[in-house]
């Protein structure tokens, strides 16, 4: 996907996979042939877990939230494609002009590390979508850069 020029964000095309997804900036006059790298932190930041808990608190009681957050903290980091995360969550991607999506796109362009996202597994037998407990804006930003980008994530089951 091409970023709208009005956003003043380099137009990028994929050139590789995780770890460190590589985006090659298109010839837009100022960033021709520059390679951009999506950089990742090795683990979610400490503040990501309370952010996930705040969201999950809207969906379940405290015991459920505590169990999910404990499982997220203990879960290994895995990688999933941006398009698959959105499909499993049944959410639409926010557009690149969303301020939070734009902020995350700028972080990628500046070479800043992004935090892995936090997910709660859905249930296909009951048609329950996966939850993006923390990191929805990062998923959307990276989806617009390349829907096949693999995003580091921790996944917990719904208790």
TrEMBL record:
It comes from Nocardia fluminea. This is ParB-like nuclease family protein.
């Amino acid at each position: 996907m091409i970023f709208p020029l009005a956003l003043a964000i380099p137009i990028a095309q994929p050139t590789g996979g995780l770890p460190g997804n590589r985006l090659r900036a298109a010839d837009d006059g100022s960033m021709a042939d520059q390679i951009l790298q999506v950089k990742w932190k090795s683990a979610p930041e400490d503040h990501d877990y309370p952010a996930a808990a705040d969201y999950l608190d809207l969906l379940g009681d405290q015991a459920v939230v505590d169990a999910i957050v404990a499982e997220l903290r203990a879960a290994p980091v895995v990688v999933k494609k941006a398009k698959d995360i959105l499909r499993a969550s049944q959410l639409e991607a926010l557009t690149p002009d969303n301020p939070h999506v734009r902020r995350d796109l700028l972080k990628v362009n500046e070479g800043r590390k992004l935090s892995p996202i936090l997910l709660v597994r859905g249930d296909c037998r009951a048609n329950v979508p996966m939850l993006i407990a923390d990191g929805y804006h990062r998923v959307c930003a990276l989806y617009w850069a390349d829907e096949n980008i693999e995003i580091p994530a921790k996944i917990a089951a719904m208790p």
